[in-house]
Amino acid sequence: MAQRLGFRYEGLSHDYLFIDDAWRDHERRSLTAPAPWTPAPSLPEVQAVS
């Protein structure tokens, strides 16, 4: 899902999060939007918040 939204994989942080009494690895991802950016047609439209 993250890749479909335009995020790219940057790496893995080992033993980064402490969840359920154990240290867990964490994937790092980033999003850089090209100009002009157009969302994928499969994504729902965002409603403006006023």
Write the layout of secondary structure elements.
Elements: E1 8-19, E2 22-30
Antiparallel strand pairs: 1-2
Written description of the protein model:
The chain has 50 residues and is mostly beta strands. It has a domain at 1-32. It is 0% helix and 42% strand. The chain contains no helices and 2 strands. It has strands at residues 8-19, 22-30. A two-stranded antiparallel ribbon has the order 1-2. A hairpin with a 2-residue loop joins strand 1 (8-19) and strand 2. The chain is elongated, with a radius of gyration of 16 Å. The model has no long low-confidence stretch (mean pLDDT 86).
Features:
50 residues, mainly beta, two-stranded antiparallel sheet, 0% helix, 42% strand
Tell me briefly what this model is.
This protein is mainly beta and 50 residues long. The protein has strands at 8-19, 22-30.
Q: What is the total tally of β strands?
A: 2
Order of helices and strands: EE
Fraction in beta strands? 35-45%
What is the arithmetic mean of pLDDT?
86
Identify the overall geometry.
elongated
C-alpha Rg (nearest Å): 16 Å
The helix content is under 10%
Q: Based on helices, strands and strand pairing, what is the structural class? A: mainly beta
Strand order of the largest sheet: 1-2
Number of helices: 0
User: How would you sum up the major sheet?
Assistant: 2 strands, antiparallel
Task: Indicate the low-confidence ranges by residue numbers.
Answer: none
Termini separation comes to 28 Å
